[in-house]
Write a structure and sequence with these properties.
eight-stranded mixed β-sheet, alpha/beta, 42% helix, 8 strands
Length: 314
């Protein structure tokens, strides 16, 4: 019977270790008010849309007939485009936004995070801001929202910029551990209540081509904004509602001039898919960056901006 006692004590020790790990990584939701002071300085503002207070930045000359509208990726925020926005806004109207489920905008009241819900959101946002037509820019998830919006409402999108964009069935090389946990349904109750800061830091480093670019402030931002009330549950809902690659045949319908930017060190979405976009889109140019990863516009805003500016001027 000694083996039963040993098994029993082993189970107790394991339970204590698991409980200790959960207690160590337990993180309560952060209320919006405490996040706004740090992460929504001027020119940030909030507009009411679809039952949400949508966080956005709308800068540059209002006389610009075709503003540049920028959409971030999953678990990110409008801050991913800060470098581009500050440079472009001297001559162009530039709009960046926290998509529903992410950043300071927070969860959708309807809990709908399908791509068609996001495309309708983008069009209603344009109407709210009285913008008729845009150059639509999207990274990762934001990339798929952008190209599907361009197909749904071609008269509203003049040009398209896709950055390490979703769309095809992914040949995932390395999914960040945070996303791996989000996809484990059996862990949901725990995962909605924990977020170890080292896990966030490791996930962020894995999507950068140069991990040394992941500063303490950048980790703070991703960590704190993902703790915004409702964002963790929204991430799980988005993962559940994802249909990766299902709409890929539609990509051939994209008629707008399109710039595809890709980090060659992207470990989330294979760089080969950048070339696939330009194979399927008739009017397309591909520019790759050898040292950058999944977020090239954030990792090296100055180094990636030239390709965008050339495209905007063409």
């Amino acid at each position: 019977m000694n083996w039963i006692k040993r098994l029993w004590w082993s189970a107790i020790v394991l339970a204590i270790l698991i409980a200790g790990a959960i207690a160590w990584s337990w993180e309560p939701d952060r209320q919006l008010g405490e996040l706004v002071a740090r992460w929504a300085p001027e020119p940030s503002r909030f507009v009411e849309l679809d039952g949400m207070q949508v966080h956005l930045r709308d800068t540059g000359p209002r006389s610009d007939p075709t503003p540049v509208l920028m959409l971030h990726g999953m678990s990110s925020s409008l801050h991913s485009f800060e470098g581009w926005q500050s440079s472009l806004q001297t001559k162009r109207r530039v709009i960046s936004v926290d998509l529903p489920g992410f950043g300071l905008t927070g969860p959708s009241p309807q809990g709908d995070y399908r791509i068609d819900a996001y495309t309708r959101f983008v069009l209603r946002l344009m109407d709210t801001l009285e913008v008729k037509r845009v150059v639509l820019v999207g990274n990762a998830l934001g990339g798929e929202i952008a190209w599907q919006t361009a197909i749904l409402a071609p008269e509203r999108v003049q040009k398209l910029v896709l950055i390490d964009a979703d769309g095809y069935q992914p040949s995932v090389l390395s999914m960040p551990i945070g996303f791996q946990i989000a996809s484990m349904r059996g862990m949901r109750w725990v995962s909605e209540r924990i977020l170890p800061r080292p896990l966030m830091a490791a996930s962020l480093r894995s999507v950068f081509g140069e991990p040394d670019q992941v500063t303490k402030e950048r980790i703070d931002r991703y960590f704190e904004l993902n703790l915004r009330v409702g964002n963790r549950r929204a991430l799980f809902q988005r993962m559940d509602q994802s249909t990766f690659g299902e709409s890929a045949p539609l990509i051939r319908r994209i008629a707008q001039p399109t710039l595809v930017l890709w980090g060659e060190r992207d470990q989330m979405i294979s760089p080969d898919l950048g070339a696939q976009f330009c194979h399927d889109i008739p009017r397309c140019k591909l520019v790759t960056f050898p040292k950058l990863g999944h977020l090239p516009q954030e990792e090296d805003p100055d180094g990636t901006l030239k390709a965008l500016q050339t495209f905007l001027a063409s």
